[in-house]
Write a structure and sequence with these properties.
The complex is a heterodimer. In chain A, a hairpin with a 2-residue loop joins strand 3 (133-135) and strand 4. Chain A is built from 7 helices and 4 strands. In chain A, helix 2 runs antiparallel to helix 3 and helix 3 (42-51) packs across helix 4. The longest helix of chain A is centred in the N-terminal third of the chain and has 15 residues, at 5-19. By secondary structure, chain A is of the alpha+beta class. By secondary structure, chain B is an alpha/beta fold. Chain B has 3 domains: 3-84, Ubiquitin-like (UB roll); 132-216, Alpha-Beta Plaits (2-Layer Sandwich), CATH 3.30.70; 221-577, Rossmann fold (3-Layer(aba) Sandwich). Helix content of chain B is 34%, strand content 14%. Chain B contains 19 helices and 20 strands. Classes of the chains: A alpha+beta, B alpha/beta. Chain A binds chain B through residues 42, 45-46, 54-61, 64-65, and chain B through 163, 166-167, 172-180, 188-190, 586-587.
Chain lengths: 157, 588
């Protein structure tokens, strides 16, 4: 992982040069940029658009179509509340709403303290524990909305 | 490629492989309804209105289904397509009801009421309950930041015709689909205000929109207010292309010239003076041809590029700023007319320029942005105060209860309302070039032209080229229409593959006759009717019928120079008729 931002942009330039003129260039370059920067902010998207002779509208369209792309830097902790069928019928939507409310942010966004990012999540394969939430690699099951504030507090330094 | 024979609703038709079912049906004389489809520009099968039964598992979208991919009947080997069955009618109706579930349905107050493709299809398919499905209503974005264009996503059906035109035809690409599923919207990148993007205000997206999701910024209130103000002297001018299309708003056939009725209707609306931008088009030729000759003789920057089209100008400033020194310093004709109205005319008529309101009727949305440029004015007064499009003028005429088609044919007011045939053809691609050539040829050679028509620069090809010899002076010219074609041309110039003396660029495909402010004609009609060609013909016919067809021979022009400017490109002319340009960022 490159730390120096100059190196990151140099790496992006290489990826753009390699993909220019190829089919699906925008998609592939965005993927590489996401790996390099961890997210694809506006200046990176503008660089991609200009470098590939595309438009920012197209690059932004692709970046918002696929949930794998993040427009903002991700927080230290990624929260995924499962919205698969089993979790959903067991009330995971209420759990998710509670998470959003406690962190005062939305799905796909990062809390203001930069600590938590709420991800769009489908079945985590732990239906027996429904409703399920993951924070990085920790799994929490059989949740009710009132459990949420206490769980989140554990991650606050 | 081999031919394929198929039957569509029982009609047998043979077409080359690669033809779509939609195109084959057209050949067979069968109309399949479409909504998102725009030939060659947007063929994506998104709206599902053109579904047909093929004998296959499910109905297929005719606009993207190649005939060779259709299933054949196992027993007979035939291909049978049905375009109008109870199932299809029911699917199309349901599709429309689903589109309406995410649409604001405020037809009565919509600028496209009675000229909306969604409304028309709902009528055709007998949609009885516009509220059959209660949609979640995607959060609507209403963007009024632009001086030219209003975006209202509450009326958007996500057909993508606007973004396809913006990106593919105009090579601008400032709007496009974002997000997915129910959250999908047509948006600027990062939800920027349209005014903060590299939008060139050409309005081709408005012309492409089937509904009222995109419309011109309505400035008719400003005109009504000025007309009602007794302290204001309200002067109107209208561009060449307006007369070739305004009649369509009143049910006249496409291509009807309504020059006389246009002048009459403006007079009846109560304007104090009814002038014509055509006069300033002749003035533009005098200034521009002189500038060109000067650049050629004095080793100035070449190729010189025309500056009449404000969509093109903002495109140049934003995407090709390296060509700014190539732009003619001439203001666009209506700005020149405004400047002359507030100086020469004001002096002659003894009117305080500050009390004059200049209204321009334009085929163009970009003129609204242009008129607000701070550099286009004098002594703290803007050259032009309000710009309305051809469509807005039609609305005003209707509001005033004027029976347009029964108006007598009248003339524009004298002094700044006379014009030559060369001015009339400004409204079509190649027209400015032809008008300039008529004058440049005679001024440089001293000979009379035997034939006034320069047919090489006529027609609707994206880029046209020609070469003329004017007494040993080799004049290589090119004409581009649409900013997409312009970028192709400029790339070739930049790469050194092409070199020219003089280039005409119009921002819209076909030039002003097909401008973003003109009456809207659906892509379905455009497939059958050559809209650009018919409107252009109206202008070429008027040119041919006029006795004066060269700008430098128009008595009113000679008089203006004798009495006021001295000669073309004089100090005074530079002060009032010329301008400067600014390199702009794509995103602010």
């Amino acid at each position: 992982m490159l730390v120096n931002s100059q190196e990151k942009y140099a790496e992006l330039d290489k990826v753009i040069a390699a993909n220019k003129g190829q089919g699906g260039a925008v998609m592939r370059t965005l993927q590489a940029a996401q790996d390099i920067f961890g997210h694809v902010p506006m200046d990176v998207q503008i660089k991609i658009a200009e470098g590939l002779d595309s438009t920012l509208a197209e690059v932004y369209g692709v970046a918002t179509f696929y949930s794998q792309f993040a427009l903002e830097p991700a927080g230290e902790y990624r929260i995924g509340v499962c919205l698969g069928t089993a979790c959903y019928v067991k009330g995971s939507k209420d759990v998710l709403e509670k998470v959003c409310q406690v962190l005062d942010t939305q799905v796909g966004k990062t809390s203001k303290d930069g600590l938590f990012t709420i991800k769009d999540t489908r079945c985590l394969g732990a239906c027996g524990l429904a409703p399920v939430m993951m924070i990085n690699d920790d799994v929490y099951g059989r949740l009710v909305p009132d459990d949420i504030p206490g769980i989140l507090d554990k991650y606050r330094h | 490629m081999s031919d394929v024979t198929l039957k569509i609703d029982g009609v047998s038709v043979t077409v080359p492989a690669g033809t779509t079912v939609l195109e084959a049906a057209k050949i067979a004389g069968i109309r399949i309804p479409t909504l998102c489809y725009m030939k060659d520009v947007n063929e994506i099968g998104a709206c599902r209105m053109c579904l047909v039964e093929t004998g296959g598992r499910a109905p297929a979208a005719a606009c993207v289904m190649p005939v060779e991919a259709l299933p054949r009947n196992r027993a007979t080997g035939e291909i049978n397509v049905k375009t109008n069955t109870p199932l299809l009618r029911s699917i199309r109706k349901t599709n429309l009801e689903l589109l309406l579930s995410n649409h604001d349905k405020k037809c009565l107050s919509c600028p496209r009421n009675t000229n909306c493709e969604l409304q028309q299809l709902c009528r055709e398919y007998g949609v009885e309950d516009e509220n059959r499905f209660a949609g979640s209503m995607t959060k609507a974005v209403v963007d009024t930041s632009s001086l030219a264009i209003v975006r209202n996503n509450a009326k958007c059906i996500l057909c993508r015709r606007c973004s396809a035109v913006c990106e593919k035809v105009q090579k601008v690409g400032v709007i496009g689909p974002i997000m997915r599923g129910m959250a999908t919207q047509i948006s600027t990148p990062w939800g920027m205000a349209l005014a903060d993007t590299g939008c060139i205000n050409c309005g081709q997206c408005v012309a492409a929109c089937p509904t009222g999701a995109l419309s011109e910024k309505d400035d008719t209130d400003k005109v009504w207010a000025a007309l009602a103000d007794p302290t204001k002297h309200v002067v109107v001018q209208s561009a060449p292309a307006v007369r070739a299309a305004l009649g369509e708003e009143f049910g006249l056939p496409i291509g009807t010239s309504v020059t006389g009725k246009l002048a009459a209707s403006l007079r009846r609306l109560g304007f104090d003076k009814v002038f014509d931008t055509d006069f300033a088009a002749d003035l533009t030729i005098m200034e521009e041809a002189t500038e060109l000759v000067g650049r050629v003789k004095d080793g100035g920057v070449l190729p010189m590029i025309t500056s009449c089209s404000p969509g093109w100008i903002k495109f140049c400033e934003t995407y090709y700023p390296e060509f700014i020194p190539n732009l003619s310093s001439c203001k666009s004709p209506h700005e020149m007319e405004g400047a002359v109205i507030k100086s020469y005319y004001a002096e002659k008529a003894g009117i305080d320029p500050a009390s004059i309101v200049v209204v321009s009727v334009m085929p163009c949305t970009a003129k609204k942005y242009e008129a607000a440029r701070p550099e286009l004015g004098h002594d703290g007064l803007a050259d032009v105060d309000v710009v309305i499009t051809t469509r807005e003028l039609a609305r005003m005429i209707k509001q005033a209860g004027i029976d347009f088609t029964r108006l007598p044919d009248e003339r524009f007011d004298e002094m700044l309302g006379d014009y030559s045939g060369a001015a009339v053809i400004f409204g079509v691609t190649g027209g400015v070039m032809e008008a300039a050539l008529r004058t440049a040829y005679e001024v440089i050679t001293g000979d009379k032209l035997a034939k006034l028509e320069f047919t090489d620069v006529r027609g609707f090809e994206g880029v046209k080229e020609a070469s003329y010899n004017l007494n040993g002076l080799e004049l290589k010219v090119a004409v581009a229409n649409s900013t997409g074609a312009a970028s192709q041309l400029l790339d070739a110039v930049k790469a050194g593959e092409k070199s020219y003396t003089f280039i005409e660029i119009m921002g819209c495909p076909g030039g002003c006759v097909n401008g973003g402010g003109q009456p809207i004609v659906s892509p379905t009609v455009r497939e059958d009717v050559d809209v650009k060609g018919l409107r252009a013909k109206a202008l070429y016919d008027e040119d041919a019928a006029l006795s004066v067809r060269k700008s430098h021979e128009l008595p009113a022009i000679t008089k203006l120079y004798d009495e006021y400017f001295g000669k073309p490109n004089s100090h005074k002319a530079h002060e009032l008729l010329h301008t400067t340009y600014t390199a702009r960022k794509k995103y602010n």
